[in-house]
Amino acid sequence: MDADLLIINAAQMLTCASPDGPKRGAALADPGLIEDGALASLEGQIVAVGRTAELLALLDDPAAAHVIDATGKVVLPGFVDPHTHLLWAGDRAGELEQRIAGATYMQIMQAGGGIMSTVRATRAASLDELIAQTLPRLDTMMAHGTTTAEVKTGYGLDLDSEIKMLDAIRLLDEEHPMDLVPTFMAAHAVPAEYAGRTDAYVDLVVEEMLPAVADLRYTVETVEGEYYVRAADFCDVFCEAGVFDLAQTRRILEAAAELGMGLKLHADEFEPIGGAALAAELGAASADHLVRTTDEQLASLAASDTIAVSLPGTPFGLGHHDFTRARRLIELGGALALASDLNPGTCWCESMQFIVALACRYLKLTPAEAINAATINAAHALNLGRYVGSLEAGKQADVLVLDIPDYRHVGYRFGTNLVETVIKRGAVV
Ligand code: NIG
Ligand code: FE
Prior knowledge:
The protein is α/β, with parallel strands linked by helices.
C-alpha cells in the first residue's frame, strides 16, 4: 500500500466511524477510539486507519510519506460546521449593549436592527469587500479545526444581492482550503421594501429568486476539463413567529424541493410553531435550533431521517438559559449534530471546540457524543456523510492533531485553541 501522509503514535485516535449513516441513540457515545493510532492517506484520501504497528506493516515504503508524529496527542476528524452565516459585512456590537439593557433579539429586529442592519451593510459592500471581511473568519474557523462548513446567504434579500453572496461563497470556496457548502436563504427576513407584505415577498422568493438561483451554475476548470456546480445545494427558511409562518415556510421549501434543492429549516428558536415536524415531513436534510420544540415534534423529528442540528452558541450568545433538549432527542433515537450558527447578531463564534464545550454543559452531552455530533453527524446534516466527518478508508483526509493527552479535554477546556495541526485533503494547512 502507498501513502503520501502518515500520522503515527497518536495517544488516542477518534475515528467517529459510522458506516451505516448518522449515529443515533447509544451509538452517539462511541467515538471509535484507537489507542496508539495511525492514519495513512494518499492524494487527499484516507487509505488506512489502525494501530501504529499494524498500519506501518501495511505500507510498501513508509519512508516515502510525510510523517507526523502524534506521540502524546489526540487525532480527530476535522470538524464539520453545518450551519453558519459566515458571510456578512459590518458588525452589530451595539446590539449586545441593547440586549444587556433589556431589549430582546426580536424587538431589535422588529425595530429595523438585527438581521436588517446586516442586510444594509451587506448590500452596500462590494463583492471584494464582502470577501475581504469574511476571509479572516474562515481562517479562524480552520485554525480551530473546522474543515468543512455550510454558508448561508440571507443578508441580501434581493436577487442581485443574494447572487452577490452566492458568488462570494463560490470564490471563497475556490480560494480557501475549507470546503464550503452554499445554502440559499432569501427567506431569512422580510426586507424593508416588503415590510408588512410578507406574502408578496414569499411570492418573489418562490416565483423569481428560487428559479434564478436553481438555474445558476458555476464553471469549475480542472486538468480533466470543465464541469459545473450548482450555486446553492440547500434552501433554508427562518420559520419563526413574526418572520415566516409555517404555511409560508412550506411554500418556499416545496418550491425549492421541486427545483432539486436540499432543504433546511431554522425551527423553534424562539417559539414552537411547528418547523421541526414540517422538516421531517418534507424530508429536510436538517432542522436547526430546536430550542422550543415540543415533545411530540421532537418525536417526529427523531423518527425521521432529518438531522437535528443544535446551535448552543446562540442561546449562550443571547444570554438565554434554554437549549435544545438533546438528551430527550437522543433517547428518542434521533440523530443530533452540532453547529456554530456563526453570525454577527447572536453568535460570532468561529470555534467548534467552544460549541462542543457548551454542548457538554447545557445539552449534557459527553465529550464523545459532542465530538460525534460535530463531525460525522454534522457531515450528514449536509448530505456529506459519505465523504467527510470520520476517519475511515475512502474518505477525504480531513484530520486534526490536538496537543492534549486525552480527547475529553475537548469539551472540558474552553476559550483556548487546542488544535495544533489541521490537515485538509491530506495537506497540512
Ligand atoms: O440562526 N435566527 C436567524 N438567523 C440567525 C441569526 C442571524 C442574525 O441575527 O444575523 C440565527 O440565529
Ligand atoms: Fe442560523
